[in-house]
Amino acid sequence: MIIKLNNLNYIYNSGNPFEKKALDNVNLEIKEGDFIGLIGHTGSGKSTMVQHLNGLMKPTTGQIIVDGIDITQKDANLKEVRQKVGLVFQYPEHQLFEETIYKDIAFGPKNLGLSDEEIHIRVKNSMELVGLDFEYLKDRSPFELSGGQKRRVAIAGVIAMKPKVLVLDEPTAGLDPRGRDEILGEIQKLYEKEGITIVLVSHSMEDVAKLVNRIVVMHRGRVAMDDETREVFKRAEELEKLGLGVPQITRFMKHFKEKGNDIRDDILTVEEA
Ligand code: ADP
């Protein structure tokens, strides 16, 4: 077990008229090697939840264990936790700020106090892992790049910290279909090559369905479903109630059936009617 959330609650603006319960008794276990799709409507609590995974947000109540450390304890070493759990925010390219791509990616490793040689290796490797040409791009400004490429630089900066778990919050938001497919392809490769544990946050079934092996569905701050991808797809009626896009579900159930998975024919027929 790499991350465990126990009875997690989070309330924004506690005690004032804008009070909002964003996480409602969330229990979740993330195991080493998991590739999880965290899905749910806008406002269901996904971003709030993932910001708890590396100690960026402190729960109102509940406990978070990361790699054996209870990070909700006062004396927890949060620096170490942030290195173990790399979080790629929404629109991460907004956080690029260095004059060269190399410096931007090197920023985190430098803060770890690593040698120049080790930093060089990490920058090069992480650029290669996200499909960026090291020699061609290292001395360029990140601001010369396309939206999709900038995002890769930002992801490379997190990978360069060598996290055990990589959490990506809506990594395809605002990209065109090509940029979206490219980023998702890079994420899949990363999982296959590096064996890193991944949590991919998305409001789109379509994005996650083809990649992940486990789906966690959030609804109104709660975990509404948590199962293997194909098991979640079998529960089409519940997904429909959660407003998660029936036509897409039909399409992907077909996809899974074609791959020989045990999807009920009656569900497919009903969905198509
Ligand atoms: P998601 O990532 O699934 O879109 P969020 O975690 O961003 O969901 O939001 C969960 C709930 O918390 C929503 O109702 C949202 O309006 C509320 N919320 C999120 N951020 C804040 C904030 N900074 N202040 C107050 N309420 C917030």
TrEMBL record:
The keyword 4Fe-4S does not apply. It is a peripheral membrane protein. It is an enzyme of class 7 (translocase). It holds the Pfam family ABC_tran. Residues 3-245 form the ABC transporter domain. It is found in: Cell membrane. Keywords: ATP-binding, Cell membrane, Hydrolase, Membrane, Nucleotide-binding, Translocase, Transport. Its main location: membrane. One of its GO terms (molecular function) is hydrolase activity. Its EC number is 7.-.-.-. Belongs to the ABC transporter superfamily. Energy-coupling factor EcfA family. ATP-binding (A) component of a common energy-coupling factor (ECF) ABC-transporter complex. Probably part of an ABC transporter complex. Responsible for energy coupling to the transport system. Forms a stable energy-coupling factor (ECF) transporter complex composed of 2 membrane-embedded substrate-binding proteins (S component), 2 ATP-binding proteins (A component) and 2 transmembrane proteins (T component). PANTHER family: ENERGY-COUPLING FACTOR TRANSPORTER ATP-BINDING PROTEIN ECFA2, HEAVY METAL TRANSPORTER. This is Energy-coupling factor transporter ATP-binding protein EcfA2. It comes from Tissierella simiarum. The lineage of its organism: Bacteria, Bacillati, Bacillota, Tissierellia, Tissierellales.
